[in-house]
Each structure stands twice: as C-alpha cells, then as structure tokens.
C-alpha cells in the first residue's frame, strides 16, 4: 500500500484543524460542564438552543453563543455596562460569513489584521451586528438586540 503524499496529508490535517475549531453550544457545554450545571433549567434550555435571555450571566452567554466578536464599554448614569457584539460580514445584502472564525487571534492572520484575506476581495463588504448583548453592572444580560434576516 502506497503512503499518502505530503499535500494530501497536509490537506487532511488542515481539514481536521478547521473542524476542531468549529464551536457549537454542545461543544462549549462539553468543555465547561461545571458552568452548565450551575445554570437553572430554563437557562440550560436556552444555552442548548444557542440562545440568550434576560438575566443570564456572561458565562452562560459564552456557552450559548461563544466568544463575542467585539466588546464595547459604555459609561452612563447607571454605571459602565458591557456590550458584546456578534457580527456578520455582508456584501450587497449577501452574507459572506457569520461568526467567530473570521478572527484568527487578536494579532491577525498572515499580517491581514485579523480578517481572512477572503473578505478583502469584496470592495462593498460591510459589517453588521447580527446580535448585540448588553450586560448591566451585575454582569447579567439586560437587553438583547437581534437583526431580522
């Protein structure tokens, strides 16, 4: 039997790495069972469905949605709430990509400043908040804003 060639081996390894990077609520729950166990039953159901609700803490939101694409702090009379943005790239109304995977670390990927070069080929691309989660001073969700498709 002939051994697989180096390019074929490399492609397989790259594919396995990509699949391992895909984060779902189930994979995040499996990675953090103690955090999931601390949630009440209604919060557990939301997390399993990949949804968030008012009153959930930051850990529960991360289990449901993963890491935010962008975090903003706003100062107002009530304090300094934190706002988590989950974004999508679009070009003339067509979704190019949604989710965390366009960000390959905070230092960038291959010198492209954090976005895969794929997105640079779309001169009309824009970034939209597909979901915005705001936390109050107690680090619990106070509002959720979601764009209609």
General description of the model:
The protein has helices at residues 6-21, 25-31, 33-37, 41-48, 58-65, and strands at residues 70-73, 82-91, 94-98, 125-135, 141-146. The chain has 149 residues and is an alpha+beta fold. It has one domain (6-146). Strands 1, 2, 3, 4 and 5 form a five-stranded antiparallel beta sheet that branches. Strand 4 and strand 5 form a beta hairpin. Helix 4 packs parallel to helix 5. It starts with 5 loop residues before the first helix and ends with a strand.
How large is the share of residues in beta strands?
15-25%
Computed structural class: alpha+beta
Radius of gyration, in Å, reads: 18 Å
**How many DSSP E strands?**
5
Question: Spans with pLDDT under 50 lasting ≥5 residues?
Answer: 16-20, 100-115
**First-residue to last-residue Cα separation:** 51 Å
Shape: globular
| Global mean pLDDT | 77
Please provide the ordered H/E string of secondary-structure elements: HHHHHEEEEE
Count of structural domains: 1
Our count of helices gives: 5
Which sheet architecture does the biggest sheet show? 5 strands, antiparallel
Helix fraction, binned, reads 25-40%
Core attributes:
5 strands, 149 residues, five-stranded antiparallel beta sheet, globular, alpha+beta
Care to give the gist of this entry?
With 149 residues, the chain is an alpha+beta fold. 30% of the residues lie in helices and 24% in strands.
């Amino acid at each position: 039997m002939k051994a697989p060639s180096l390019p074929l081996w490399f492609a397989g390894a790259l594919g396995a790495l990509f699949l391992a990077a895909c984060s779902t609520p189930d994979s995040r729950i499996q990675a953090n069972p103690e955090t999931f166990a601390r949630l009440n039953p209604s919060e557990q159901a939301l997390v399993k469905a990949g949804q968030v609700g008012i009153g959930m803490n930051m850990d529960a939101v991360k289990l449901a949605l993963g890491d935010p694409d962008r975090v903003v702090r706003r100062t107002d009379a009530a304090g300094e709430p934190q706002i988590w943005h989950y974004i999508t790239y679009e070009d003339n109304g067509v979704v190019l990509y949604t989710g965390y995977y366009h960000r390959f670390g905070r230092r960038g990927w291959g010198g492209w400043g954090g976005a895969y070069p794929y997105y640079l080929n779309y001169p009309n691309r824009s970034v939209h908040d597909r979901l915005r989660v705001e936390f109050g001073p107690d680090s619990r969700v106070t509002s959720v804003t979601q764009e209609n498709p």
